[in-house]
Amino acid sequence: MYGMNNRFCSFKRLLALKNVGWVKSMILHHHRTFSSTTGEFLTALRPFYFAVHPDFFGRFPRERAINENSLKELSSYLGYLQDTKLGKLLKPLHLTFYLRASKGEDASLSGLRSVEIRLKSCDVRTAVESVLSSSGLCESRSLPDTHIEKSVFRSSVTGAGPDRPIKWDPTYYTYTGFQPPISEAYSRPKKAETLRPWLSKNIAQACKLRDLSEPSRAETDLLRIRLQKELGLQDVVWDCSWSVAYFRVCLHRFYQVYHEHKNSIPSLTGRTLMFSDWMGVSLDGHVVLDRSEVPTNWFNHLKSFKQWDSVLEQLSDTEKLLSSALCGIQVIRPLNQAINMGMVYSQRLLKLVTSLVSFVRANCFPESFAKSLKDLNLVAESESAALKLSTTGQFVVPASCSAEVLVNFIHRNKAEAQTRQSEHQRRKDKEKRITKQCKEELGLLFLAKESGISVEQMTASCEKLLIERPAALAEHRLRVAQYYSVMQGGDIFIPWHWE
Is the pLDDT of residue 283 over 90? Predict the structure, then answer.
């Protein structure tokens, strides 16, 4: 840094001289090149930094510490090399880094490989070349002398790009998310696959997996019925796209945990037991177990889930207050949210209730305001949400909305809300009817849609299935999704917009 300041002062003194235009132009060119060096070398070393950055080695504390210390030393070394005088005084530097091993490379049990880098150059370009070559993060280990100037420096100084596509090690694209350069043959957009050819290629595999999973499916159904009868459960739900074999394992584990600690677990009578990717109690009161957790954690949750009943009662009372303040409007509770989010949800409701209480006392409702809104629905959202009428006819209300604005908005849009609700119910009834018809006429064992598929998309897909009537789907389990796939249990997934 000291050398950089001295050199810059020398430039300024020389620029103060008159009648030496050629000197001035040469110095300006040199100063621009020098000041941009740091950014250019960082660009050249970017794949290396991504491959060895300590943040990517959280599971390996020892290797993380080594990479962190080595990066600090490398940064200091390159900084000194930028000063011509100090660079000549530097001693050779030996560094060790850890990178993730690629296929075919020797690696430890952790999947990492160590790289030894020896730096003994007096200029930055050679040092950068040594780092890239030693770590194997460049296409060629023996880089030509002009590689860095042509592929990196020229792009920043003249604005031109590299003279050829640079293909880095796969780890670079893994960490950055960038796409590697590919040939034109692979870059052409693929033609969308149609349903019948896809079925002809995959139906045999689907049949095989379906037959293999039938014993597991039958055993799972028996376990569900057994648990519902013994524990008085209202339902047992598998909220996951994993195969039925995993569901069976979870039911066996739960059955074992419950009978081992039967006296310590409160009654589950009337409850819905759900296996999902999180654990807790939902706002609907469902007991949710994480399918990937160990039985000990299941037991710790099961013996204490009753403590959330008071929170559910409080939520119910707050919803009734809000409904009463707005002429009996129906307050819709968010779906599949954990009970620990219930406190946040309760605060939203209380804000709206507090705002409406004074408004109601002052009798500020419009004269033509309806005396009853029990046919309308309201959803309380966060303060940052927008006040709007959804496509399904629900009033989406932010917690920060004032009572006056809310009442006037409902008053103006009441008729439109009722129209949208009726239309949405009509579409839902049509979806239910055509789904049932499609299942029966195509001989499907099961037909449903994934959570991201709308009513209109499901209806359109079923209508096309009734027209095309692919016979290969008979005796199969079908799900309408966004993609083609055959799951481990033999379930067939097709995109809703299939051709």
Answer: no
